[in-house]
Amino acid sequence: MIDLSKLPGTAADEENVFFLRSHWLILLPIAIGFLIVLVLPFAVWFGVNASNPEFFGTPGYATLYVLGASIFFLYAWLFLFQSFIDYFLDIWIITTHRVIDIQQTGLFGRTTSELLLDRVQDVSSEVKGFIHTIFDYGDVRVQTAGEKERFVFENVPHPVHVSKRILELAERRRSAQAIPAVND
Amino acid sequence: MVSLTLFLIVWIVLLAIYGILVLVTLIQMLRHGLPSTSAYVTTFVFLLVMAGVVIGTSIYFTGVDWSVTVNVVPEGLLPFFFGES
User: Fold this and answer.
1) What are the tens digits of pLDDT across the range B9-64?
2) A60 vs B contacts (CB less than 8 Å)
3) Radius of gyration, alpha carbons of chain A
């Protein structure tokens, strides 16, 4: 597993400030979809029983149903877990020196990007929509001097607080680098 | 008429493929996940439910007569799809 205390390229005086994930609410549509899928085998059972109550009493057909329904459920359950992993392994780590963006794409795709805090020019936050406002989650956009937006933290909790914190850290980092070292 | 044993073999093959997918998924989770309570709990719940279904169906299968043959398109299902004739 990832050890936050042993991130690659960690400087001697670098400390982890916090790490972010998208708000858990974005899992809700997946969970609802899974519940609907889960109900399907039972719906088939009730439907068949309603149209032909003796069907599952015939030798072999109940077993066929159990075979089909069990493997259907297992694959649906695995799909739900993989969707959860896709969400769970997307993280943003903010340290005193940099911002690390780790994005999981499916099971076998993983992109890691880094941005030094002293290059951060602008950080903006956006909370849009009723549900987003009630639960206080939204997007944080981190901009460097380049044209293209470098990082977008999607659907993170408390985006206003996060953006302020990143700006503070970036300013602190620039100040620390502007002070020349004094050697006695 | 097809023997139930054939369907059992297909089920076992699908379960083996499923097992490989679960293994790969768990390796990814363990390799890239952050060590946290939620990671452990969700993985445990996933494995628990999966084991429950596999063990439950296996226990059910011990009481099944696998020599029984079935129609691939059971007559009893026709009213379910096409209504009463």
Assistant:
1) 999 999 999 999 999 999 888 888 777 888 889 899 999 999 999 999 999 999 88
2) 4, 68-70
3) 24
Q: Please, what are the averages of pLDDT over each run of 10 residues along chain A (184 residues)?
A: 66 81 90 88 89 81 91 93 89 90 83 88 92 94 76 92 92 78 47
- For residue B5, the 8-state DSSP code is H
Give the B-side interface with A, CB within 8 Å.
4, 7-8, 10-11, 14-15, 18, 21-22, 24-25, 28-35, 38-39, 42, 46, 49-50, 53-54, 56-57, 60-61, 64-65, 68-70, 74, 76-77, 79-80, 84
Taking CA A101 as the corner, what is the angle to CA A100 and CA A104, rounded to the nearest 5 degrees? 140
Question: What are the sequence ranges of the domains in chain B?
Answer: 2-64
Sign of the four-CA dihedral B32, B35, B39, B40? positive
